Amino acid sequence: MSADRDVNKLNSIQNFDPGGSISLSFITSLTNCEIERVGPMEFERISIDSRDIKGKELFIAIKGKNFDGHNFIRNALEQGAFGIISELSLAGIASSLGDIVFENDFSFMRVPNTILAMHDIARGFRQRIERVIGITGSVGKTTTKEILKTLLKRYQTVSTFGNFNNEIGLPLSLFRAKKNDKFGIFEMAMRSRGEISQLCSIALPDIGIITRIAESHIGLLGSMENIARAKGEILDFVNSAFLNFNCTYSRKIFGEMLKNKREKPKEIFWFGKVSDIYIKSYEISIYGSRLEFSGRFGNFALNAPNIFLPQFEPLLASVAVARFLGLDWNEINDNLQSYVPLQGRFLIKKLRDQIVIDDSYNATCTSFIKGLETIKSLKFGSRRKIFIFGDILEAGDESKDLHRKVIKKIEELDPYLVYFVGTEFVKSIDHNSKIRFKNMDIDCVKEDLAKILSKDEIVYIKGSNSTKTWKILELWN
């Protein structure tokens, strides 16, 4: 096909229909690309993983620290990709592609930076969504997203899937948006200053939620104040912000930041304690909670299955946003009945003869203490309690103090046995402590626990992701 015909073919494509396939003209209108070959003009999906190609995708060859998607362009074409976005020229990689250059019909676009091109395309997908809700914070992002998604279930909504919440994951989540989606609910994670701003520049949130500032990444950012300021970057983008009044750093740092704001956010809502919305009273059982809400959004009692102390703040934030968006209390209560937490987020299960509390998805000092307080509130009586706890990682110089705080809370519950995975908890235990514990790697814990498990025990599992405490659940599979 000649260059002139290539241009004519592109110009013949009219308006992009965001509800259907992804057109080549849509991609080229968003990116700083050079079209080196025109083949198929429509793509069904966007992928960055050649193993995920099923046919008719647009493959973006992104570079990471430990991989280079350009090495898999041939694989993507062999699997049926219809288009390629690359930093390398087609002429430069033609020899590595071999005969597939002639055998397959595909479009090829060259860009200066494939990750930035992916961000540009994601901004185009953002325009499919009427309103975007961005969620950041050290803990509770996923739970807030899941509860809010449950409350808004009568609307056409797109949200973060898996843990796709960084500079690579957020665009992939946005690529799932369909025409006329009412809401987008997206988590925004970060490890350094400037990353929340970058994510907000892609998702362009209208509403922002900051769940709670905790010790996550304190070893990288140096202080809780620095973590708060990094999370607070979302305030520069949103019209309406929902902030945690229970969190000292939220009140202090965001209070300071908001004094200097001129245009955004236009509205601030605080959740927690005696604020715009708060929990006046609650009752808790093994099945969930009954909570009485009060504040500017009115008074109401909600039945909240599968929601315990660790989820109270995410529930408050979600209910506040739902009320702000116009949902009445009855609809909120009705929708909440179908809420089921994701694996690893304080999910209580009866597995064979034990009650297993799966809280294995990551850990901070704050979330450890909330989980232990919940177990104390549930009043399991004389049942033996066994804890499998992995270290709190990325805690930096604060590590010993944070682990000691958790140990004090463990001592209040007097468990039968605690398995510590890692070294930080063990280094932080006072020699006078009465905690009965074993220090093992996770596979040894699994073997040892299998030997001592008995009927009606409470097994609580929690730890930072890399400690792999979730592997304990294999005992019941």
UniProtKB/TrEMBL annotation:
Q: In which pathway does it act?
A: Cell wall biogenesis; peptidoglycan biosynthesis
Q: Which reaction does it catalyse?
A: D-alanyl-D-alanine + UDP-N-acetyl-alpha-D-muramoyl-L-alanyl-gamma-D-glutamyl-meso-2,6-diaminopimelate + ATP = UDP-N-acetyl-alpha-D-muramoyl-L-alanyl-gamma-D-glutamyl-meso-2,6-diaminopimeloyl-D-alanyl-D-alanine + ADP + phosphate + H(+)
Q: Which GO terms describe its biological process?
A: cell division; cell wall organization; peptidoglycan biosynthetic process; regulation of cell shape
Entry's Gene Ontology cellular component terms: cytoplasm
Q: Which UniProt keywords apply?
A: ATP-binding, Cell cycle, Cell division, Cell shape, Cell wall biogenesis/degradation, Cytoplasm, Ligase, Nucleotide-binding, Peptidoglycan synthesis
Molecular function terms in GO for this entry? Answer: ATP binding; UDP-N-acetylmuramoyl-tripeptide-D-alanyl-D-alanine ligase activity; UDP-N-acetylmuramoylalanyl-D-glutamyl-2,6-diaminopimelate-D-alanyl-D-alanine ligase activity
Q: Gene3D superfamilies from the xrefs?
A: Mur ligase, C-terminal domain, Mur-like, catalytic domain, MurE/MurF, N-terminal domain
Instruction: Provide the protein's localization.
Output: Cytoplasm
The Mur ligase N-terminal catalytic domain, residue ranges? 44-86
Q: State the superkingdom.
A: Bacteria
Q: Which residues are in the Mur ligase central domain? A: 135-261
**Listed transmembrane segments:** none
Task: Outline the extent of the Mur ligase C-terminal domain.
Answer: 344-464
Reported EC number(s) for this entry are 6.3.2.10
Pfam families on file: Mur_ligase, Mur_ligase_C, Mur_ligase_M
Role this protein plays: Involved in cell wall formation. Catalyzes the final step in the synthesis of UDP-N-acetylmuramoyl-pentapeptide, the precursor of murein.
Listed PANTHER family: UDP-N-ACETYLMURAMOYL-TRIPEPTIDE--D-ALANYL-D-ALANINE LIGASE (PTHR43024)
Q: What is the official name of this protein in its record?
A: UDP-N-acetylmuramoyl-tripeptide--D-alanyl-D-alanine ligase
Q: What are the top taxonomic ranks of the organism?
A: Bacteria, Pseudomonadati, Thermodesulfobiota, Thermodesulfobiia, Thermodesulfobiales
